[in-house]
Amino acid sequence: MTTADYPYRLPATDSADVLVVGAGLAGLHTATLLARQGHDVLVVERRAGLAGAIRTTGIFVRKTLDDFPLPPECLGPPIRRVVLYPPNLRRPVDLVSSRDEYRVGDMAPLYEASAASAAAAGVRIALSTRYAGRHGDTFHLAGRDGPTTVRARFVVGADGARSRVARDLGLDRNHHLLVGAEEVFELPGSDEPPTFHCVLDPTLAPGYLAWVVNDGQHAHVGVAGYADRYPEGLRRAVEQFSASAPGLAGVDRPEAVERRGGLIPVGGLLRRISCPDGLLVGDAAGAVSPLTAGGLDPCLRQSELAAEVLDDALRAGKPDAMSAYDGAALRPHFRGRLMLRRGLAQVRTPAAAAAAFAVLRTPFGRAAAGRVLFGDRSFPDAVRG
Ligand SMILES: Cc1cc2nc3c(=O)[nH]c(=O)nc-3n(C[C@H](O)[C@H](O)[C@H](O)COP(=O)(O)OP(=O)(O)OC[C@H]3O[C@@H](n4cnc5c(N)ncnc54)[C@H](O)[C@@H]3O)c2cc1C
């Protein structure tokens, strides 16, 4: 494949082997792998640019950093230290790993670098272009220059937690969602070791955590939880947390901060994620850890399986190859994490959070927290027959 013009300007009618809807990491990675296998791939993205409206903190775990060649200049300093706090922030549990565990992506250049790799592999990427529906193998798009129809053999729904492609293909959809929001700002540097601070407070983060990531270069201050448990709204919770957030002693929060936010599917991998006409990847497929709400590692790993299955289907000309992409077969790997998610959802009062800390402070509790935070578990590698 040769380098495609980026961004690609769509004509009134077009065609491709595979239409990928959504230029997040899942869509871009799937598209790049398919193009490298010689397939003609068109990605459509409704945002006008990939550096805007970012919806992730961008914490990459060690396993992802080991297995995927992310551009090092787009990654912050390694983080080894995690501090867990009860609602009153007293007597936190300090955990330090002997290995580099996390790095926070500088997401705007990282998305641009992923798009550049995709274009170099020959992927056409059309921005400001919304997928609006399908009729058989004809897909309707609404672009800057008006409506376009594209004929494609397969469609990939990489269009996030509320996937329109999932709906149109009659596949499973996410129903169990958290909402998350954060403020991001630059830091002048720090003498403190890069640290990930997590606060278990069901008022600020009902069913999840409030966080401060301070890697010495950037601060991310955020909360996430169940939408129906934020009576005063998510934005208010971020402001409240930001006023007393740990890990930022001596740091002046600037007037202007970048705001990020979005939905996080935490119901586990969906069961029906493929059909003869297409498949889902990333958030659209529910490929997010129900416990940690991390979706960057799963979306990259799942994209590899998706590209492999689509390659088989395109080469063999047999749509039944798509049945190998089966969420129901992989879902049992998430059983433990789904159970822990149910436990976290039950922490509804500050008293319950404080009681959880009584356990976390014991050697058993610290070891269990260390296994979750510094463990090697990730999205199951392909288990195909
Ligand atoms: C606040 C927050 C913080 C998070 N922090 C982390 C973290 O630190 N680490 C981690 O591992 N995970 C984190 N996650 C989860 C992680 O970001 C996601 O799981 C991951 O980014 C999903 O990638 P994706 O490509 O599937 O979806 P997305 O990145 O959401 O991409 C979907 C794309 O589809 C486009 N799209 C949607 N509909 C259409 C349409 N009709 N037509 C055209 N385009 C469309 C959207 O504009 C978007 O660009 C966080 C999530 C949130 C909300």
TrEMBL record:
EC number: 1.-.-.-
Sorted UniProt keywords: Oxidoreductase
Molecular function GO terms recorded: oxidoreductase activity
Organism field: Streptomyces kurssanovii
Domain FAD-binding: 117-326
Record-linked Gene3D superfamilies: FAD/NAD(P)-binding domain
Protein name listed in UniProt: NAD(P)/FAD-dependent oxidoreductase
Plastid listed as a keyword: no
